Amino acid sequence: MTTKAEVVKNFGVVQTEEMVLNMGPQHPSTHGVLRLKIRTDGEIVSSIEPHIGYLHRCFEKHCENLSYEQVIPFTDRCDYLASMANNHIYSMAVEKMLGIEVSEKVEYIRVIMTELQRIASHLLAVGTFGLDVGGITPFTYCFRDRERVLDLFEYTCGARLLYNYIWVGGLSHDLPLNFRQYAQEFIDYFEPKINEYNRILTYNKIFIERTGDVGVLPAEVAISYGCSGPVLRGSGVKWDLRRDEPYSIYDRFDFEVITGDGQMGSLGDCWDRYFVRVREMGESVKILRQALAGLPEKGDVQENIPKKIRPPKGEIYFRGESPRGDLGFYIISDGKAKPYRVKMRSPAFSNLSVINEIGAGWMISDIVTILGSLDIVLGEIDR
Amino acid sequence: MSGYFRNIGETFTSLWDGMRVTWGHFSNKERLNATLQYPHEKWPIPERHIGFVEKDYNVIRSRLHVDIDDCIGCLQCERACPVDCIKIETIKVPKDVELGSTPGSSQTSTTSNGTNKRLLVGRFTIDMAECCYCNLCVYPCPEECIYMVGGPNMDKHPIDYEFAVRDRNGLVYEFDTATDEEVTQIAQLAGVADHRAQRTERLEQMRQAVLAPVPAAEAVTNGEEPVAAPPVAKPKKVITEPKMDLAVLGAIGDRVTRGLAKKAAMKAVRAGRTSTEVAEQVKAALEEGGKLTPEVADIVAGLAKIDIQQPGGAEEVAVAEAGVEEVAGADTEAEAKRAAPEPVADADATPKKETAPAASGDGGKGKVDLTILNGIGDRLARGKAKAILSKVTRQGGTPKDAAEQIRTALTELGKLDDEVEAILARLEG
Ligand code: SF4
Ligand code: SF4
Q1: B48-190: CATH number
Q2: How many CB atoms lie within 10 A of CB A326?
Q3: Which domain, by its residues, includes A237?
Q4: Can you tell me the distance from the alpha carbon of A311 to that of A40, in angstroms, rounded to the nearest whole number?
Q5: Which terminus of chain B, N or C, has less C-beta within 10 A?
Q6: How much distance in Å is there from the Cα of B132 to the middle of ligand 1?
């Protein structure tokens, strides 16, 4: 909350020496292994330089040695909090290359899974953001509910975190018995819980003091840095690929694109970014309700899975809205069974790049808040 | 001023609200608690059967199980695996032989689907530590025999999710049931040279290549269950006559040299020589044949480390260390230098100065058999004991004198325990 100008105003002329401070790579608030090289002037941060690569696993290069279906388990491991979204978008990219259409039922199940995943991912973002600013309790509540989503996933495909569920041309499993009922139960249980988070965290005065008006990201800056997802929408830009470039069957659902409104300070502050996520969970519940109602009973989820995936020569860029923003896959095929090149456009990478812009001038403790509000996943940034 | 009080007021009301949520949960802890008191309480093992067809199989991904009797060795699963953690080796069964018809065979000739098995699966291992649980191997299997546990093979391998082991090698699951004899037999029938021996040799070569710069280190893996290459951990063969694992010699590149060396070694072993003597004889034979290059000498020296009788753990390591020293004695100056640091690592500097010249100077004659002392677990004690023994022997003392001196020295050090005492008794005897 305190800027240098204010410090100077309150304490007169302050003469300090610059100090370089390393935050991370082993730091609980860096959400993984990120190192921030922070130049501080007293308590005020003058510049931040993120150093990444600690989790680099050669995803893109490795893809060149794998067949198209074998890449899917590795996309899981990029953004490991939103594996379903990664599976979905990658599979759709390859399907576009092959010219495969998938059945209605598959599309519905994919949307259901991706939206459940969005809830799970946002729950983690919200919970750990609370943790970053010092609230421990909301985190446990968020995790409790996230577990229920993971239970649903486990029930569906046997895995809790890395699913390899959405395949090129279909799904690895059909929905289990009574899934519809369990999913319905979950969203009925979950919807009132959003209000609980609001009561315990969102409208907490201390939380607002820590996040409101902190790390303001103006819309133009966000756009010029290529931010996307809740980070961009928190700055008031109404941009959501599900709405603006509808893929899959998102055009059939009625939902709102949530944007920040500067309710607790100025537009684009940490609180706005946080609150966009909370409200997006509500929107996901809306989509889930509609999708569960429209989900066809019958249908083979594997009928369109190609025996051999050999896309024709060419390239494709396909993007979709992952919980963190625009996730894109650029794939070049040389007509062989393995991709010639796979490039992943990871939203968290672009979102992180803005940290110097919005973090400079704030106190060190605010950097933790700002970083938390960007909701980065290092698995995706480093790939 | 009003802002100040409003702030305080808002803080209290919002805190109060948050606290009400927390207390609500607190009083409801039976219904809403999120944690499980593992291991006192456990998550129920899922019983649901889901899959492409209902009741097809259960998809909890906890570990893989292979119904090896149904496996036809088609390698589809191996190919599907993105991390290459499935390793399968097969031998083609000759047309006129039916699998399982050979005496003592554990194999079945057909799968439960009725497919004829034309390949003997000599090795089927899955490294679950490497597996990424993607389930991709399950789908292509034509015989539906590889599954995450709880599939159709539920009764053969029930679902479990607790399979921690103390050693990473414990996560390499071996599913193959073919015995060594069987593999050898089928391989012979099929006209392939002994498959398993070839493989062991290849593995040994690889191990040699990796461990070549540190001759002593490999001894640890020798003889007993190999640690570096778990897949070959097969039932150990019972030794009935003096026998020696000559696979080390496989590392010799030149075929003629290798043949010569093996022949000489075999002869020596059959004549009941100790491993050190075997190594020496092989070396002599090669020298005669004009094939003794420094590399070959190195490899041959490795022979001295391999025990001929079935060894006990500690002693075996011991033999290896002694081997290095003795080789140093018999070999060139350069060799001696290379091997000399070994005792240094073992003990303080004094014994080294005494052993090394002794070894290289005497060149084999009046040499001390320090091997026996290697059973001493404590490094300092071992070093001291060795130093004394070699010194006493060089001065013409009997082992009894040496043992006496060692005893005194070790008592001073406070290192004389039962174990050492037993070894010293053996030295005297
Ligand atoms: S589950 Fe995946 S990683 Fe594991 S063995 Fe099967 S294919 Fe390989
Ligand atoms: S796919 Fe099935 S039958 Fe073929 S090798 Fe693997 S386990 Fe055996």
Answers
A1: 3.30.70
A2: 22
A3: 72-331
A4: 52
A5: N
A6: 6
CA of B113 to the centre of ligand 2 (A): 13
**Would you call A163 helix, strand, or coil by DSSP?**
coil
ipTM: 0.75
Are the CB atoms for B368 and B392 separated by under 8 Å? no
Query: Alpha-carbon distance A112 to A99, whole Å?
Result: 23
> What does the radius of gyration of chain B's CA atoms come to, in whole angstroms?
31
Cα distance between residue B268 and residue B280, in whole Å:
10
Protein residue closest via CA to atom 3 of ligand 2: B71
Q: How many domains does chain A have?
A: 1
Domain with A187 in it: what CATH number?
A: 1.10.645.10
Cβ atoms of residues B427 and B402 within 8 Å: yes
Residue of A nearest to B43 (CA): A151
pLDDT tens, position by position, A36-91 = 888 888 788 888 888 888 888 888 888 888 888 888 999 988 888 889 999 999 99
Contact A174 B133 (CB under 8 A): no
Task: Report, as ranges of residue numbers, the positions in chain A whose pLDDT lies below 50.
Answer: none
Residue A300 lies in a domain: yes
Measured distance CA(A61)–CA(A343) in Å, rounded: 9
A19 falls within a domain: no
Domains of chain B, residue spans: 2-32, 48-190, 243-310, 340-428
User: Which of B21, B54, B135 is facing A158, going by the closest CB pair?
Assistant: B135
Residue nearest (by alpha carbon) to ligand 2 atom 6: B77
On whether residue A238 sits in a domain, the answer given is yes
User: Is the shortest distance between the CB of B368 and ligand 2 below 6 Å?
Assistant: no
Of B34, B46, B133, which has the smallest distance from its Cβ to A159's Cβ? B133
Segment B305-333, tens digit of pLDDT: 776 654 444 344 444 444 444 433 334 44
For residues B307 and B297, give the distance between their C-alpha atoms in angstroms, rounded to a whole number. Answer: 18
CB B120 within 8 A of CB B99: yes
Nearest CA to ligand 2 atom 4: B74
